[in-house]
Amino acid sequence: MRIKLLKLAHARSGDKGDTANVGLIALREEFYPVLVREVTAERVKTHFRGICKGEVERFELPNLGALNFLLHESLGGGGTLSLMTDAQGKTFSTALLRMEIDVPDEEARELNLGVER
Amino acid sequence: MSTKRETIRVACGQGFWGDLLDAPVRQVSEGPIDYLMLDYLAEVTMSIMQKQRARDPRAGYARDFIPLMREILPLCVERDIRVTANAGGVNPTGCAEAVRDVARELGLAGRLKIGTVTGDDIMGRLDELLARGIELRNMDTGEPLAHVRERVQSANAYLGAWPIVEALRRGARVVVTGRATDTGLTLAPLIYEFGWGENDWNRLAAGTVAGHIIECGAQVSGGNCQYEWQAIPDLANVGFPIVEASADGTFVVTKHEGTGGRVNVPSVKEQLVYEMGDPAGYITPDCVADFTTIRLENAGRDRVRVRGVRGRPATEFLKVSISYSAGFKAVGTLVYAWPDAYAKARAADQILRARLERLGLKFEQILAEFVGANATHGPLAGEPSTDAPEVQLRVGVRGPDRAAVERFTKEIAPLILTGPPAVTGFAGGRPKVEEVVAYWPALIPKMEIEPRVEVTEV
Hints:
Radius of gyration of chain A: 15 Å
Radius of gyration of chain B: 25 Å
Shape of chain A: elongated
Shape of chain B: globular
Structural class of chain A: alpha+beta
Largest sheet of chain B: 10 strands, mixed
Number of domains of chain B: 2
Oligomer: heterodimer
Number of helices of chain B: 12
Strand content of chain B: 25-35%
Strand order of the largest sheet of chain A: 2-3-5-4
Structural class of chain B: alpha+beta
Number of domains of chain A: 1
């Protein structure tokens, strides 16, 4: 089944210069391996096309059930140079949660996905 | 060394300059704490303070800090609470003097000492440093500072916890610093109280993580928290965070009883990943903390225990925060109403651009955003609705020529009578032209920087 990350994770984002960081945190421990497998740097780069003009780096934090993404060249110059409403990348968190991933039906059943919590 | 205590409670009272004014007052008055840490400095705050100091040599620090001290100093003395604050900005000495004056007015003469940490300001040494081949290259772009040297407005090295520790050892009740790291303001009290060593990397990393967790104020105790946000109780009465630290480097994140908000494992996780780079190497002047070693566990209502933090030796460099003048900008807005709100806003943007073009105005950047359609999530928001009740057009320009930016600000209002219909939202008058002060991060060898600590009796 196709599922929005919003159902699997919460997130917080911020900035360092022209780079936005998005920390993606599994809502439940069991979701973390799905995030690791599906939410790759390449797919995040594709998701943010037209917004992220540089590279995307990914770091794993299994201890927190979280992934950290760095989206380079994404904030219109960053800091005070940027003319963007969201010059600090604060809303990149929910922008990532819009992403949809494919989870095999059987796995989705095991994880109780598709069932409204 | 003070008498050994089992746990030390460090409370955050400000997550940035402009945070809730009563938060620090509530931290000292609504429950037990040992230290109050106050973070006032964002990346470009120093340049604002530099400008203020250029106009008035006694200014250049976080002015809010002085009335705050007037309000809480008597209680801090009575309850034996110490304060660490980077409120000094580009004038820590002036800030400390203002605190001293307030303390005397409050009749506290002879009852407390004030510590001042300086040595972070390298503005006056820039040419000498550059001449010696210390290029202060931009950490993001690799460009040498020489390219913008004449436009530099401030330059400060980030100092860590140790100068603050020194001030505490010499008996300071209030420690005022310039550009000290936000994490150092929390770590220093722990080093001092528990006698942690300079090579005690795991504990220094633990104290650094503690600092990171509370340095953004209520952002760890329910504010800006996505996890079950609608269920977070009483944000109107939000409690700011407190770390209750033990000598072994473990600590509990909590807040005062009876305050609103929430501290739980998800809220702490959200703050941990905030502004994170490589989680295995969180670099500060004091150590390199490894965030992949952090263990969190629920320790009761509004209590999260943090343990397992590991660290590595500090690097041989300090980060330098340099600000430089980078032209001018202005942002103007207009609101278009249903029907076809988005189409009208887009048409207005086209008309405006054509006029700017005809006037021959040149900018480095022009950006139009459509608030209500795609200003935050851009193309990810999908095709804007044709039925939106309203859309705000928000146009910004930036460039080196002040006159061009100034002229842009005069082209917004005319759109009301000369552009698409059903437009409003110009009550605020013309947009203001702002000078852009940009941030230039660089590294400097640690040996070039000599922190100075002064402690004086009030």
